[in-house]
Amino acid sequence: MYWHHKIMGIFGVVLLAGCAITPTSQSQTQPPTTEKTDTLCQNDLAAIDVNFHASRANHCQVQSPTSLTITIDPENKPINSSAWYAFRVSPSHAGTLRVNLKYSHAKHRYPPKISYDGVNWDVLDPAKINEVSEDEISMRIPLKNRPIYVAAQEIFSVGAHNTWIEETEKLPFVSKSIIGSSIEGRPIYKLEAQVNSNIQKPYVVFVGRQHPPEVTGALAFMPFAETVLGDSKLAKNFRKKYDIILIPNMNPDGVTHGNWRHNMNGVDLNRDWGPFKQPETQAIEKEFERFKNGDDEIVLFLDFHSTWRNLLYTQTDEEPTIPAFFTRDWLLAVDARLDDNVYKFTREANKNSGKPVSKNYMYVTYGIPAITYEVGDHTDRKSIAIAADIFAQEMMKLLLEHESK
Could you give the C-alpha distances from 312 to 99, 188, 202, 316, 369, in angstroms and in order? Predict the structure, then answer.
């Protein structure tokens, strides 16, 4: 698979050129931001650094004039095996650099992606990758006369999120606010869409990026939101009946530091819904007070994530929700339109496990469909956008039908 990112703006179309794709947001045009100038290590052929947002490479050891070993450590342990890495190679001359990539507490999960500008990304040719063991790979990186980024997934930084937020805020019915701050003081932004603020309407709420490496979830969040905020007759009718809250990036510190899973306190934010001990989740709790005290009503909650394959974690059909059987009917409608060759997905309906995750908390607290929208790590990027558009359309249709009853 070859991924090429060139942005067409908000409501932009996804284009396919061979196996190339184009995501929907201007935010991906931002290259990683340089903060420092330190070199992690250097041999005769190239220097390695992690002087940009979302980078992670903890140790580097020179093995020869043309080879080196990079070790990747998690921010905390035990930890989910989402071994994120990102580093930059600055060549002294053309050649082939051999990099052994080792994980101290995880298995290799993400095939290397490469970019010369932090915007356009290719998957490194599999012929240049050898699996040494489940926790080590060896890769051969072709060097030209310019630096090259190597990362687990496309780098989607806090700045990229914020650019998308700024573009979306330009819509006349969308407002931006800060609902709280991360441990390191980064703002947690909320976008709220209201066509007529004088009329009280129920809300749908979408949140994202609780876990930093889950880039494909972010790539689904944007086109899903853009469809709901779009110019179609369906979207306009939907906004007459429903208001929308978007919280695209709940863990800006973790994204900035290239964390595998946690915030800067070493806590998985999606295990803190209910306790609300972290500043990032406390911001959510405060924002949702309006629903608890009855000032406003919430009817649907979606939390965007990434995992090994496309799936949705939901309540069972035996667990009552308002609207009744929304999830069942929604996914049946999507499945009728979405070819498995484009985007195959499954539903995993499980009774409340009692874990303090967003899905359980929102269902128990409000009795609404609360769904974790998981996107596969390796899912074709065009397919992610196509599916998100269809999921959003069918969501709006079904909620409008419910409203008319």
Answer: 36, 25, 23, 12, 12
Nearest Cα residue to 79 out of 259, 257, 305, 214: 259
Domain extent, residue 269, equals: 158-404
Q: Is 219 found in the same domain as 279?
A: yes
In order along its 405 residues, the chain shows pLDDT tens digits of 333 332 233 333 222 222 232 333 434 446 676 655 689 999 999 999 999 999 999 999 999 999 999 999 999 999 999 999 999 999 999 999 999 999 999 999 999 999 999 999 999 999 999 999 999 999 999 999 999 999 999 999 999 999 999 999 999 999 999 999 999 999 999 999 999 888 999 999 999 999 999 999 999 999 999 999 999 999 999 999 999 999 999 999 999 999 999 999 999 999 999 999 999 999 999 999 999 999 999 999 999 999 999 999 999 999 999 999 999 999 999 999 999 999 999 999 999 999 999 999 999 999 999 999 999 999 999 999 999 999 999 999 999 998 876
In a domain, residue 344? The reply is: yes
Which residues, other chains included, contact 12 with Cβ-Cβ below 8 Å and sequence gap of 6+?
22, 23, 24, 25, 26
Q: Are residues 142 and 191 in the same domain?
A: no
- 138, 132 Cβ separation under 8 angstroms: yes
Note whether 216 and 360 are same-domain residues.
yes
How many whole angstroms from its chain centre is CA 111?
A: 17
CA distance 155 to 173: 30
Q: What is d(CA 198, CA 127) in angstroms, rounded to the nearest whole number?
A: 60
* DSSP 8-state symbol, 12: P
Q: Cα angle vertex 135, ends 131, 140, to 5°?
A: 40
12-28 burial: b if 16+ Cβ within 10 Å, else e: bebeeeeebbbbbbbbb
- Which amino acid makes up residue 38? D
pTM listed for this prediction: 0.93
Q: Cβ atoms within 10 A of the Cβ of 207, count?
A: 23
In 293-313, which positions are buried (b, 16+ CB within 10 angstroms) versus exposed (e)?
Answer: eeebbbbbbbbbbbbeebbbb
DSSP annotation of 373: E
Boundary residue ending a domain (102, 125, 151): 151
DSSP of 236-255: HHHHHH-EEEEE--S-HHHH
* Position 64 in a domain: yes
Q: Which two tokens stand for residue 213?
A: 């490496």
Domain count, the chain: 2
